[in-house]
Amino acid sequence: MMSRSASAATTSAARGTPIPRSARDRSERVVKSVLLSFSLLSIVTTFSIVAVLGLEAWGFFTGFPDKPGIGILPFFTGTEWSPLLGGEQKFGVLPLVCGTLLVTVIAGAFALPIGLVTAIYLSEYAPPRLRVVLKSALEVLAGVPTVVYGFFALAVITPALQRVSDAFGTYNALSAGLAVGIMILPIVCSLSEDALRAVPQSLRDGSSALGGTKFDTSVKVVLPAALSGIMASFLLALTRAIGETMIVALAAGGLAQMTMNPASQVQTMTGFIVAIFTGDAQANSVEYASSYAVAATLFIMTLALTLAGTAILKRFREEYE
């Protein structure tokens, strides 16, 4: 018969030997170091991007040893943009900013209300099975490459607009804006629906107990309670629209002009950057350096939108226990 000491030893071996405290501490330090390194990598990457844009843009404004600078004031106040050789070069960024904002406004006017209404339906009205189907369709829509949206704008949206009015040419801001709106629609819908579903059920029950209809509860109770999350989805979608590249490069055109006519072709800031880096501009030329100045301007715009969004979120944030 096995002795008690032998039995205890066998049981202890079966359960496994506990890890020494020193080994656990080493493993924790390794995990902490790995997580810290990845966090620092993201910070270093961000500051590297800012440094590259800042140095190249500063050289464009103040001048390099072999070429004069353009100047910050003429760049941000000029109303003509003609950076390529073959004529008088003009570097007023306002036409590019105007084209970018025009496409973004069109995209927002299309995607924000449709996305919000869809989110309210999915959160408050849709049956569970239908919600799953629609959410899956939105996820598929979100996975479509942006270059496909650009070709869709040229092949489908633009011909449809031309059948409505002869004012639309092959390239126009409305076609590009609608395609960008379709692209950001899943962002608005998904994030807004998550914000609506995060509202406590007790608020809905209280509204129903007071005699509120389903529509009254959705619009007057749930929607205001989820306003901070909805605003976050709007701002994220607009930021994504401002930085969109391939759709506007394919469908908006390449004519930098200050216009609010959606039937006209425009050039956005991202569209110009694509044109420069896919064209014949030399790496040490002033038109090549202008792309960094435009990129820095785009960065400042998105940063300002992000900071404004943070302030708005703090203003409308609601916390529930």
Question: What does this entry look like structurally?
Answer:
By secondary structure, this protein is mainly alpha-helical. It folds into two domains: 20-69; 81-316, MetI-like fold (Orthogonal Bundle). Helix content is 73%, strand content 2%. The protein contains 13 helices and four strands. It has helices spanning 4-15, 21-62, 72-77, 94-125, 128-142, 146-164, 173-197, 201-209, 214-225, 227-242, 246-251, 269-277, 286-316; strands spanning 63-64, 67-68, 81-82, 90-91. The strands form two sheets. It has a two-stranded antiparallel sheet. Strand 3 (81-82) and strand 4 (90-91) form a beta hairpin. Helix 8 (201-209) runs antiparallel to helix 9. The longest helix is centred in the first third of the chain and has 42 residues, at 21-62.
- Main β-sheet: number of strands, strand sense, barrel status? 2 strands, antiparallel
Note poorly predicted spans. Answer: 1-14
What is the CATH topology assignment of the largest domain? MetI-like fold
List SSEs in N-to-C order.
HHEEHEEHHHHHHHHHH
CATH architecture type of the largest domain: Orthogonal Bundle
**Spatial shape:** globular
CATH superfamily of the largest domain: MetI-like
As a whole number of angstroms, the C-alpha radius of gyration is: 27 Å
Number of domains: 2
> What structural category arises from helix and sheet content?
mainly alpha
**Strand line-up in the sheet with most strands:** 1-2
First-residue to last-residue Cα separation: 61 Å
Task: Report the average pLDDT across residues.
Answer: 84
Number of helical stretches of at least 4 residues: 13
Measured by DSSP, the beta-strand proportion falls in: under 5%
CATH class designation of the largest domain:
Mainly Alpha
Extended strand count: 4
The helicity comes to: over 70%
